[in-house]
Amino acid sequence: MKAAPLLSVENLTVRFPGATNWFGQVTSQVHAVNNVDLCVLPGESLGIVGESGCGKSTLVQAVIGLVRLTSGRVLVDGHDFAGANGTLKRDLRQKMQIVFQDPQSSLDPRLPVWRLITEPLHIRGGMPAAALRARAEELAVSVGLRSDQLDRLPHEFSGGQRQRIAIARALSTDPELLILDEPTSALDVSVQAQIINLLLKLQRELGLSYLFISHDVSLVRHFCDRVAVMYLGQIVETGPAEAVFDDPAHPYTRTLLASVPSLENSLPDVDASLTGELPNNRRLPAGCYYRERCRSAVPGCELPQALLAVPKANAESAPRHQARCCLHMPA
Amino acid sequence: MTAHSVQRPHALSIENLSLEFPTYAGAVKALDGVTIKVGNAEIVGLVGESGCGKSVSTMAATRLLPEGRYKITQGSIRLFGRDPMAMDEEELQQVRGKLVSTIFQEPMNALNPTIRIGQQLVSVIRRHEALGRKAAEAVAVNILADMLIPEPARIMQAYPFELSGGMRQRVLIAMAFSCNPGLIIADEPTTALDVTVQAAILRLIQGRARRTGTSVVFISHNIAVVSQICDRLYIMYAGRIVESGPTRAVLDRPQHPYTRALLRCLPERVRPKEPLESIPGTVPNLLDPPPGCFYRPRCPEADARCMEKPHSTALPGGQAVSCWQRAGHPSHPSSEVPS
Ligand SMILES: Nc1ncnc2c1ncn2[C@@H]1O[C@H](COP(=O)(O)OP(=O)(O)OP(=O)(O)O)[C@@H](O)[C@H]1O
Ligand SMILES: Nc1ncnc2c1ncn2[C@@H]1O[C@H](COP(=O)(O)OP(=O)(O)OP(=O)(O)O)[C@@H](O)[C@H]1O
Ligand code: SF4
Ligand SMILES: [Mg+2]
Ligand SMILES: [Mg+2]
Q1: Could you tell me whether strands A226-231 and A209-213 are parallel, antiparallel, or unpaired per DSSP bridges?
Q2: Where do the ABC transporter domain residues begin and end (chain B) (predicted)?
Q3: What ipTM goes with this model?
Q4: Which residues constitute the domain of residue B294?
C-alpha cells in the first residue's frame, strides 16, 4: 500500500485568453497546460523538465492557486484546494511554499534581508522580532549567505544571492511541499551543491517533498526520485528518474537528452528538424502533439496518444515508466 | 556592418579596476584589481562564485551601475578605445545599444511590464536605425523567429507577463542582436532555456561572433556551456581574477585551487541523492576582506606565503594564475612554472 499523496493534480487544464477582438471578446486561447495528472508523495521529489514555454511555471502556479484552473482538480492532503476556503484553505496553503523562477520580482526592495526571509513567518504572526531575526540568521547561513549581510537591501546583492534569499524565505515556515521553479540556475556549482545538499538533508530528516522544475537534466537526475517530461502543456513521459533518463521512451525526451551540454562534447549542430515546426499552443494538434517535429512518426501518430506503460524487458524494474507515444503502444 | 581594421582596439579592456560601494556599514570592495580584455570577434567567459563581481565588472564598463552609489578607486576601462567614465549621457546612449548591448541576468527587470514586446523591440531598433515603423516591425518579427519563439507575430502583441521565463530571455537576446552591436554582454543568457533551444541560441551567438566579428562577454555558471562556446575564460573569486586562459587549457589543466575545487562540484560526478561536493566555507566579507589571497581561508594548499596578495603568473600557452603555489620559488620571481 502506497502512502497517500501530499499533492495530487487531476486532469488539470489551464488556458489563457490569447487574443481579443474590438469588443474585448476572447477570439483565441493559449493552451498552456493540457490535462495534466501528477502526484507527489510525502518525502518524494518530482522533477519537471521540458521545453521552454511548455507550461511548467503555469502548472505550478495553478497548483498553489496563483493561476485559475480552467478545469481539473488540485488535491492537497486529499482536500480539494481550489474549492477550499476559510481556515482549511489557509491550512492547506501553509503546507506549500514556492520559489519563483524570477525571484527578484517577489522581493520587496525596501525590506532588509532578515525581514524578507521571515516575511511569511511575520505574516503568520506570533513570533517576536528577536526570534524572527534569529531564525533569519539560521536560514541565511544555511543557504550560504553570511550573517553580516542580514541588514542589507536586496539591490545590494548579486543575482545568485537574491535567489538564495528567496530559497531561505520559502524554507522559513517549514513547508511540507516546496515548489522550486529553476531554483539553482543563478547559482555557481558550489553554492548549488550546498543548496541541493541542504534540500536533500531536509528531505531525509523532515520528509519534505519537492516539485522541482529545472532545465538541468543532470541535476534533476541527481535530485529527483521521479520525473515528468512536458511538451506543449502535456506530460509526454514520466517515471523513475533513472528509467526516464537512461532509457528514454518518447522521441521528445530523446531529443532533449541529446542536446545536454557537457565538457566533453562540442556544441551540437541543432538540426533544423529539432526546431523546425515550433509548437503552437493556440491550435492544439489532433494527434500526438510532437508529431510535426518527430523523426520517428509513423501512421497512427495522427491519433490522440495516451500515457501508457512502457513495455520493459525487465517488467518489474520500472512499472511506473509511462510514455505518450504510439511506438510504445502494446501490440 | 562595421569594418574591422587590423589595429582596432580591444572591444573591451578593463585594466586593474578596483571598485567599491559605500554603504552604512563601510565600503563593499566589489572589485579589486580586475583586468579583463576582450578582443574582436572573441567570446570571453566570466565564471566564478555567486557574488564575485561578474555583473558589476560588466555593468561598470557600460556605466549601468547606479550613478553616485559606487566609487572607482583605481584602474581604467576602455570600450572600443574610449573611456565610458568620460562620456556624457548622450554619448552613453549612443554607445549602449549601438556599440554594446547587454542581455541582463534578470529578464523581468530589463523589460517594461506595461509595454507590449513588439513596441519595446521596435523602439530599440528605431533608436539605432533609420527605419520606419513597419520596416522595424518586420525586422523585429524576424529576429524573434531566429530566437525560435513560436508565433513571433503574436508575441509582438503580448505583454512580458504573458511570456514564459525562457521566452522573455530570448526577447532580451533578440533586443541585444537587433542593433548589430560590436560587443554583446550576455549575463547568464540561457538559464531559462531548455537544452535544445539553448544549443540553438548558443549557435546563433557563436555564428554572430564568427560572421560579423561581434565580441561577446559570456557570464555563466554553466561550465559545460562555457566550455562549448567560449574562446577564453576568466575565473573570478571575491572581486579578483584568479585564473585566465584559453578555455580548454583552463578546464583541462586548472591551476588555481579555486578553479580546481569548482570543477569538482559538478553533479555528474556523484551517485544520485548522495551529497554533492561543495567548497567548504564562504566567500570573504567584502567589507573587510582578509589579508593576502582571498581564497586562503578555504584553500587546502595555503601556506605562510599566502598571507601576501599573490601576483598573476603567466604560464606557457596563454594561461595565467594568481596563486603562490604556482608562482615558482619566491627567490626567482620571474621563473615560470609549467603545469
Ligand atoms: N498570463 C498569461 N497570458 C497569456 N499567456 C500566458 C500567460 N502566462 C503564460 N502564458 C503562456 O503559456 C505558455 C506556458 O508558459 P510557462 O511560463 O508556463 O512556460 P514554462 O514551461 O515555465 O517555460 P520556461 O521554461 O521558459 O520558463 C507560454 O506559451 C506562455 O506564453
Ligand atoms: N549596489 C550595491 N551595494 C552594495 N553592494 C553591492 C551592490 N551591487 C553589488 N554589490 C555586491 O557586489 C558583489 C558583486 O556583485 P555581482 O552582482 O557582480 O556578482 P555576480 O558575480 O554577478 O554574482 P551572481 O553570479 O550571483 O550574479 C556582491 O557581493 C554584491 O553583494
Ligand atoms: S595563494 Fe595560497 S591560499 Fe591562495 S589559492 Fe594559492 S595556495 Fe591557496
Ligand atoms: Mg517557467
Ligand atoms: Mg550577476
Answers
A1: unpaired
A2: 12-263
A3: 0.90
A4: 231-339
